[in-house]
Amino acid sequence: MNKLAIMGAMQEEIDPLLEFFKDYKTIEYADNKYYEVNYKGLDIVIAHSKIGKVFASLTASTLIQKFSCDTLLFSGVAGAINSKLNIGDLIVATKLCQHDLDITAFGHPNGYVPGGKVFIDSSKELLEVAKKVAKNENLKVIEGVIATGDQFVHSNERKEFIEKTFKADALEMEGASVAVICDALDVPFFILRAISDSANGEANFDFDEFLNSSAKISSNYLVKIVEEV
Ligand code: ADE
């Protein structure tokens, strides 16, 4: 690796990282801010994309194509689907899918368009590093499927559809689009999330209450991983 990209969706998801790395240079590009850091000799670029798949795709491809990052780590929060996941728990995606991509009218499976794939795998090597760090730090981290869509999910009905259709463990609004970009550009990546809510009727209240604390849990783990990549 020559240059590492670290992404979040919301400012709240990257604030703890900027506080940790402290000395950064801000570059404005494409209506967004990119923060360049050198940490123990490693060049890192940090950015939050703004919410959703389109902004996340723009930021991921900018980090790779303009800033020349060759590895991408994502840190943020997610809604739980798997009942074993509670608020504050960590999940790293083994693979990701787009739960709202739907041309089933033409006989295709949910999450699929011709030329694409339903699931995109995270980098096995980065998952190994994440597992090793979790073990050393005595952290409980679940590996599972993350489903992404341009919807804040706050109903059991939608949650059950995503669980049944994709066997997903958690959901959020950016991961799979970042995965599509990294897969197409051959850049190893992983998506790390800490649970902020359970994507049910209380999700919007829980999200507001736990966004900052869960973002911090995710970023604390991510900086430990940065030491090892
Ligand atoms: N990110 C965190 N919680 C979420 C939810 N319930 N739906 C979509 N994205 C989320």
TrEMBL record:
<dbReference type="InterPro" id="IPR000845">
    <property type="entry name" value="Nucleoside_phosphorylase_d"/>
</dbReference>
<keyword id="KW-0378">Hydrolase</keyword>
<keyword id="KW-0486">Methionine biosynthesis</keyword>
<dbReference type="Pfam" id="PF01048">
    <property type="entry name" value="PNP_UDP_1"/>
</dbReference>
<keyword id="KW-0028">Amino-acid biosynthesis</keyword>
<dbReference type="GO" id="GO:0019284">
    <property type="term" value="P:L-methionine salvage from S-adenosylmethionine"/>
</dbReference>
<dbReference type="InterPro" id="IPR010049">
    <property type="entry name" value="MTA_SAH_Nsdase"/>
</dbReference>
<dbReference type="GO" id="GO:0005829">
    <property type="term" value="C:cytosol"/>
</dbReference>
<feature type="domain" description="Nucleoside phosphorylase">
    <location>
        <begin position="3"/>
        <end position="226"/>
    </location>
</feature>
<dbReference type="GO" id="GO:0008782">
    <property type="term" value="F:adenosylhomocysteine nucleosidase activity"/>
</dbReference>
<comment type="pathway">
    <text>Amino-acid biosynthesis; L-methionine biosynthesis via salvage pathway; S-methyl-5-thio-alpha-D-ribose 1-phosphate from S-methyl-5'-thioadenosine (hydrolase route): step 1/2.</text>
</comment>
<dbReference type="GO" id="GO:0008930">
    <property type="term" value="F:methylthioadenosine nucleosidase activity"/>
</dbReference>
<dbReference type="InterPro" id="IPR035994">
    <property type="entry name" value="Nucleoside_phosphorylase_sf"/>
</dbReference>
<protein>
    <recommendedName>
        <fullName>adenosylhomocysteine nucleosidase</fullName>
        <ecNumber>3.2.2.9</ecNumber>
    </recommendedName>
</protein>
<dbReference type="GO" id="GO:0019509">
    <property type="term" value="P:L-methionine salvage from methylthioadenosine"/>
</dbReference>
<dbReference type="GO" id="GO:0009164">
    <property type="term" value="P:nucleoside catabolic process"/>
</dbReference>
<keyword id="KW-0326">Glycosidase</keyword>
